[in-house]
Specification:
The chain is of the alpha+beta class. It has 4 helices and 7 strands. The chain has a single domain, classed as Peptide deformylase (Peptide Deformylase, Alpha-Beta Complex), CATH 3.90.45. Bound molecules: zinc ion (ZN).
Length: 229
């Protein structure tokens, strides 16, 4: 059992991942303040190599003030990180909780204990990023539409039906709750490219001289091909 289970989200909030964490604005266009806030938020997001990202989150049973604070902080972190979605595991909390906000004008969506009830047969490939995988953008095939049964942060049952970007974000975040990353949903070749991009992003962040060669996961290449859904 990981001690991370009970770790709290840092008060400064943490970020969410792109298209589900897809960044809405290219980094070059950010003003200094926004960029600084984003970087501070991103520092709280667990990155590839952290075992918590491979853990399976546990169902939430207590719908208390603490849970609502957790959800609120996740929303703030996602916003600061310029993400469109964030799963609790990404901030080291092994709760089946996700937040998402695909479009600027959408209200913040928060799903607790989400269960996929239906997905469309129609699928499409679109580029996704992940706040836990800096520098990685890959085409991921997913169902175009989904219906998910969940609870809201007060424990009330909710059913959400989404298509397009929100549906994609929800699927990406639900994956996180099962320890699945976009790297698991792409071809071996695409994964190799993604790992290279990740390494480069890390080296750029580390700055000259301290390029850490230590890669994310020991064996990013899984033996089996990504499962279709
Ligand atoms: Zn992600």
């Amino acid at each position: 059992m990981s001690t991370d289970t009970e770790s709290r989200i840092p008060t400064e909030q943490e970020p969410a991942a792109p298209a589900d964490e897809q960044e809405r604005v290219p980094a070059e266009e950010l003003d200094d303040e926004t960029r600084a806030r984003r970087d501070a938020a991103l520092a709280h997001v667990r990155k590839l190599g952290d075992p918590v990202l491979r853990a399976t989150a546990v169902p939430v049973e207590r719908f208390d003030e603490r849970l609502r604070t957790e959800v609120e902080q996740m929303g703030e972190l996602m916003h600061a990180a310029l993400g469109v979605g964030l799963a609790a595991t990404q901030v080291g909390v092994l709760h089946r909780v996700l937040v998402y906000k695909a479009y600027e004008d959408d209200p913040l969506g928060a799903l607790v204990n989400p269960v996929l009830e239906w997905e469309s047969e129609e699928r499409e490939s679109k580029e996704e990023g992940c706040l836990s995988l800096p520098g990685v953008h890959v085409e991921v095939e997913r169902a175009v539409a989904v219906r998910v049964r969940a609870q809201d942060p007060r424990g009330r049952e909710v059913v959400v039906e989404e298509d397009g970007l929100p549906a994609r974000v929800i699927q990406h975040e639900m994956d996180h709750l099962d320890g699945v990353l976009i790297l698991d949903r792409i071809s071996r070749e695409a994964r190799r490219d993604a790992m290279r991009a990740l390494r480069q992003a890390r080296e750029a962040e580390a700055g000259p001289g301290e390029a850490s060669g230590e890669a994310a996961e020991r064996s990013p290449e899984r033996s089996q091909e990504p499962t279709p859904a």
